[in-house]
Pirin family protein (Christiangramia aestuarii), 237 residues
Amino acid sequence: MEKILHPANSRGTANYGWLKANYSFSFANFFDPKKVQFGLLRVLNDDYVQAGMGFGTHPHQNMEIISIPLKGEIRHKDSMDHTKVITAGEVQVMSAGTGVEHSEFNSSKEELNMLQIWIFPEQNGLEPRYDQKDFSELLENNKLINIVSPKSDRSENALYINQQAYLHLGDFEAGRKIDYKLKNEAHGVYIFLIEGEAEVDGNLLKRRDAAGIWDTSTVSLEFKTNSKVLLIEVPMN
């Protein structure tokens, strides 16, 4: 088993007034040669956006983008003629493919906290696509829910992206233990503890800490307090 630990306080940070950002990997003005990506996971940003503010229209290309609002809502508009609102409990996926432009704004009166994840696609030059889904009724205590999976291995409820990647969310009570079995031995899993405390193969993770683990078939987690966790399984090359 190989492992890398990313404490929350080792993330890059930026404060633009309207946006407070935390970067798990090199992004914008933050660069760390040891934290460029984890396998094919390129970006995990933990953003706080003030009410009425947001990201103006900007382009993306050849990237699978997943947005998970943890608090508040995102108003999304793109060049594919989608105008949508994504709220906490929902997940949004966008395959940028050959190219797409979009904007994201916090249209509510409260601060927005969202996770934005970028994963390299399995193939470049694909047609752009958009989807979103409300998972709030599917999330059960002490159970991992598959929110994103590959199109070729799509679970019943998951959104799909153009990569052999699997994202799971779960809320767990203190004292619960789980074993996560990776789909492929050539994959790794990036464990991002959204809230709480958890022991991950002998290492204690606290709020917003992360651990990347590979060269293993199973990862064990034991939750020390009530916790919320995101697991991102990706090919390592």
